[in-house]
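Box S1 | Example of a co-folding query
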Amino acid sequence: MLQTLQQLPPDPILGLSAACRADPNPHKVDLTIGIYMDEQGVCPVFEAVQIAQHAMIAEETTKAYLAAAGDERFNTGLQRLVLGAGSAALQEGRVSSIQTPGGCGALRIGAEIIHAAAPRAKVWVSDPTWPVHIPLLGSVGLEFHSYRYYDPGSRGVNFDGMVSDLKKAVAGDVVLLHGCCHNPCGADLTLSQWNVIAELAEQQGFTPFIDFAYQGLGDGLEEDAAGLRLLVSRLPEVIIAASCSKNLGLYRERVGATIFVCNDAANARAILSQAQSAARRVYSMPPAHGALLAGRVLTDDHLGGIWRTELTAMCQRINGLRSDLRTALEARCGGDYAFIEREKGMFSFLGLSPAQALRLREESAVYMLDSSRINVAGVNAGNIEYIAESVAKVL
Ligand SMILES: Cc1ncc(COP(=O)(O)O)c(C=O)c1O
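Box S1 (continued) | Returned holo structure for pyridoxal-5'-phosphate
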């Protein structure tokens, strides 16, 4: 039976990162995979997480399964972080959430619920979107349409195109939005544009599904949540896939949650029961370690304070790198790279062709995706001039 299956090509992102690791060139630079790296090129463990981990190991008395919905402390802490402690929807009790294995698990559980509620729902995704969205949501059986989003000419959001496409989304459809720090393009909506999206959702009746994987890495925890909270304040239903991979550095621990903002408290309870049943079908129980750590950090004032300071420093460093990269590229290549500074989060398209991205890999061991998406957090003081010089060579 197994012999009928063929070898698959490497994953477009993970495959390139693996190729970079195997590359013997001492100057190699990995700008492929979306993980934060510090000046030393290390993806660090937050100090707040370390402290929580020491305490947890000392206090832990069991490794029994968590509840199907996950750790309550974590779920409560994350709801407050995402929606804001004063959220009216939270106070009205019309929010429920399930702890999931990372943001990917959250997207998948969201997709399961959408499919259960509306098997023919069309999911509108931005063009471009994170490539993993399609297999992750599509494997549930949902159908996709795309809406215009990134305009390579202006290197910003084609908002008129987005609005005109979303006017075709109807009640029963779902619009997948990047809550902040758009992956892959880094171009985010302004608050007034979020307002227009809220109006459109009201008029057309579609349900927003917000992928929220980078809260705190754009402008700050509160600022990055402003668009999402605006939608939640105006609409009866919003689905959110939140991840703690990036903003708590818990990548391998697989920590996330699907948050359902529902019409009323009874529906929030019903949806939670559906989500638990979906999780039971897919992976049964969520992993505990990372969520227990995140729960401690998010609900403890002292640890939370340490974490917020660390996250702010991370965010400021990324924004500093954006400005340094702009300067280095403009100095070496000429042209206008101001867009890198305007964008948010870890990603940016450098605007190179796939052939130029290939030459960068082959001639300089500078690894980026074929689309020329780079992880800005892979840049550091030691490689920035080399990156700019290598880009200038292929232009
Ligand atoms: C846009 C987007 N959504 C969701 C995720 C989910 O990540 P994880 O499952 O590691 O939490 C990622 C991770 O790279 C992402 O870039």
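The longest strand covers residues 95-100. The two ends are 49 Å apart (CA to CA).
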